[in-house]
Request: fold
Amino acid sequence: MAAKISVPMENKNKMKEIKIEKVILNIGGVADKLDKGVILLETISGKKAVKVKATKRIPTWSVRPGLEVGVKVTLRSKDALDMIKKLLPAIDNTLKEKQIQNNCFSFGIHEYIEIPNVEYIREVGIMGFEVSVVFSRAGKSVEKKKIKRGKTHRLVVTREEIENYLITKFNTNILRKRKNIENDSK
Reply:
């Protein structure tokens, strides 16, 4: 009798596919830096920037509720994908392992002039910003419902899935910690 060889089949389940839910660009600051941040984010994204107000009081930083402390732009669907393609070359398509968590990854751009095809803006000067990319699966809206919440732990997009997505889709390098490299080689 011949031994049966099992061949792993690719998972074609549409509910398991991961997709980019949104890309958030943000800058923290007050007063003059906030106004410059609005100009910068609107120029880079082509969308309207929203100012973020503080909700808590932090006396050591002179923050009070209602004080504008940041500015952000949220991009979705095709705009989000185009923005990632535009911003990853600014960091040489390289991410550190600790910048990737479940459901998202984040990185910072130190100076916006590092982004390809973006010119210096005299009103803004030299400034950086943070980028957060959020992933999801189909059925994620179940988590937001108040009645009959489903088993949402199945909807978590793991770090490994995000790393594979970045490597295959954007040809990104993931820098590993030295400990993990030594353990993998043993």
Remarks:
- The first strand starts at residue 18 and ends at 28.
